[in-house]
Amino acid sequence: MSRAHRPRVRGALALLVASLVAPVAALTGCDAGGGPAPAAPAPPPRVRTAAVAAEGWEEIVEVTGSLLPRERATVAAEVPGRVRAALVDVGSVVAAGAPLVALDDTDLAVEVERAEAALAEARARLGLATDAPASGDEPGGPDEVPVVAVARALLEQAEAEHGRVVALRAQGISSPADLDAAAAALRAARSRLDDARDEVRTRRAVLAQRQAQLRAARERLARAQVAAPFAGAVLERLVAPGDYVQPGAPVATVVSVDPLRARAEVPERQAGRVRAGQAVRVWLEGRAEPLRGALARVSPALNDAGRVLVVEADLPNPDGALRPGAFVRVEVVVGPDAAALVVAPAAVRTFAGLHKALVVEGGATVERRLTLGRRAPGRVEVLQGLAAGERVVLEPGALRAGQPVVAD
Question: Is the dihedral of CA 47, 48, 53, 56 positive or negative?
Fold first, then answer.
């Protein structure tokens, strides 16, 4: 190569080397002089936030309990006898006064007939119609009874005889002995009238006794059919046809199932917040919606054994769908107008049993340790750690405390 061409070759080589070095420097972060290129700072991440707010959240006392029949009675026989027929069985629906068990009433019917005969006799002794009812009309006074009427007629006769003898004695016709005899007859007639009136009083007392005996006999006869004390259903039948029962022997158990009692026990620490009339929600297994009612009864004292307060609410059960004995969860609304500080569940991070949240302050995150209370769909109660109006990061993920962020 001639000397004239050498400078032009060296210039072309220099341009070629420069064109190769520039891309390599860009890829390796070095400038053309061999030093590192400065990195551009990453922008702060954008985060979604939500405000901490005070919202209405009723206060409740949550307890457990069970459903009980409103009334439960073990019905017993009131008269002795052999069971002639069992008219109901387990599950039978009965009305108030409906017969449950029929006893053999032969002997009781005989007692009624005997009492009716005794009453007829007592009425006859007073001159009343024997076929009148037990409470038939009685004479207006003792003097209308035949035995008294006879005694009064004899008295009137003695008085007339005495008057005649006195008149004859005044004329000197009758003797003193005749006058004494007439006076004695008059005293005897008056005594017979008094005795007749006493007899009528005695017979009236006997009549009243016979009437009471007949009513009692008829009542015993009616009780040969053991009746339901109230409307409900038969829980248990305790006798069978042919059994002989004595007075007081149980024959069936009847329960009233509409309404039912929801009975629960409130712990001592919360007993002071519960009172009659408060709204309740009763949750049963398998039901998506609670049954609503109010506290109908609150025990006046704590249970000595468990130191709990027994409360009851009435639940309508017209179709019999609710069953006594079922387990229930009862929510007693003790503060219907109460409020609570709430936060979205997505803002809470839980690790090792500790609850935390990130609050945005001055463009950076600040970690807060939380004490949580109740939970509900879409919100969590915050007892400590946050204040109303603060903004918390939703779904913080891997964000750290003190990290700059841009809040939406």
Answer: negative
Q: Please state the pTM of the whole predicted model.
A: 0.62
DSSP state of 24: H
Q: Is the peptide bond before 44 cis (omega within 30 degrees of 0)?
A: no
Residue 200 class from Cβ within 10 Å (0-12 exposed, 13-18 middle, 19+ buried)?
A: buried
State how far the Cα of 149 lies from the Cα of 193, in Å rounded to an integer.
9
CB count within 10 Å of CB 1 equals: 6
Is residue 365 a contact partner of residue 349, using CB atoms and an 8 Å limit? no
List the structure tokens of 125: 């002794």
**What is the Cα–Cα distance from 254 to 76, expressed in whole angstroms?**
11
- The answer to whether the beta carbons of residues 261 and 67 sit under 8 Å apart is yes
Q: Is-contact 75 245, C-beta < 8 A?
A: no
Q: Which of 398, 381, 374, 77 is nearest to 252 (CA)?
A: 77
User: How far apart, in Å, do the first and last CA atoms of the chain sit?
Assistant: 71
Q: How far apart are CA 168 and CA 172, in angstroms?
A: 6
State the Cα–Cα distance between residues 77 and 218, nearest whole angstrom.
16
Tens of pLDDT, residue by residue over 87-124, are 999 999 999 999 999 999 999 999 999 999 999 998 88
3-state secondary structure of 34: coil
297 and 308 Cβ atoms separated by less than 8 Å: no
Please give the angle made by the CA atoms of 199, 203 and 208, to the nearest 5 degrees. Answer: 150
Let me know: does 222 contact 77? Beta carbons within 8 Å: no
How do residues 226-252 score in pLDDT, each as one tens digit? 999 999 999 999 999 999 999 999 999
